[in-house]
């Protein structure tokens, strides 16, 4: 997937993850992309470990993997900062 694909997947996955978790409200557009891209990396590693296949080409599966990773990322970060 090229850089533009990562940006699009990152933005959509980050926005959906923010809506699903109710966290990351002040992230803005670039923050949403960062949440989605980092979530894509996290989700790609986890899905690759579990199923042998991480993020591939631009498509629904890549969006799903990035969304799952972004949700996990927001939940873990939310828990980490609640305790501080």
Q: How is this structure best described in words?
A:
It is a single chain. The chain is mostly helical. It has helices at 3-21, 28-51, 60-82. The protein has one domain (3-82). The chain is globular, with a radius of gyration of 12 Å. The relative contact order is 0.21.
Indicate the topology.
Layout (H helix, E strand, L loop, with lengths): L2 H19 L6 H24 L8 H23 L2
Helix pairs in contact: 1-2, 1-3, 2-3
Q: What descriptive keywords fit this protein?
A:
mainly alpha; globular
Uncertain ranges: none
Largest sheet: none
How are helices and strands ordered from N to C? Answer: HHH
Number of strands: 0
Taking all residues together, what is the mean pLDDT? 86
SS content category: mainly alpha
Radius of gyration: 12 Å
Gist of the model:
This protein has three helices and no strands. With 84 residues, the chain is mostly helical.
